[in-house]
Amino acid sequence: MATPAALPPLPFNPGRIRTYLVRLPLFTRLVLLIILAFWLLEFQSMWGVIQWGALIPEEINLGTMYRLNTYPFIHTGFFHAFLNAAALTPLLERFEAEHGTLTAIALFVGPLSTVPAGLYILVERFILHRNTSVVGASIWVFLLLGSEAIKTYKSNPNFSIGPYKIPTWTSPLFACIVVSILVSNVSFLGHLCAILVGYLLGLGYLKVFVPPEKILRWIEGKLNLLGRLPHYVSVDQKTYGRYGVLPTTTPAGPNGNQTPMSYLGSTQRLGA
Length: 272
Hints:
By secondary structure, the protein is mainly alpha-helical. Helix content is about 55%, strand content about 5%. A hairpin with a 2-residue loop joins strand 1 and strand 2. The longest helix has 22 residues, at about 80-100. The model is unreliable at about 240-270 (pLDDT under 50). It is a multi-pass membrane protein. It comes from Penicillium fimorum.
């Protein structure tokens, strides 16, 4: 009797993935859980989740301002939600580890959702005179990529493709164009607005929205958040400091300060 052939090894290590997921910080877990919850709610027919929470320019008024916060959590199907969540998780996890859980909540519930939404509505409705609705966490993916591109640009201004030097801050723009070409039903304008806000975040112009560290420490101590909430990242546990990583350098190539082209992109949809 022939011995059955061994199964080929998996292209990834399930143990490492499990360890990574177990160590995710609190706010990142909550975002993924909310995305999952809204996706599951789409299976019922009594309540139109997408119609309720999508960012629809002509539907925005005093009674529907909640849409400025709900649209990143809502997706148009399993693959849309899964790919967005997969792209967002490492970026959001790093942001929370660098800035703390309370700061991450304050920014993503506030300006990092509402500012790109407001910019999109301004251009889409009042300049282009259209009413295209958008949903999806890729708004945060491109926003965080824009912020990371600015940080990288400060320490490594260029990456090289052959003999050409290309500014590293342009990499999210290239990704935005490629995604718009390769993936149907994406919002190029929505992604572009997110990148612009990410640039502002990376340049430090959104620091005004960050709660003072003294107040954050008082809240954490008063509520004992570190002791009560598993995976909570306190002000004093942050990895890299208040607003991001310290500049680092890599060995320069023969033609100057260059970095090899590496990019964590997104093939997700931001558009219904």
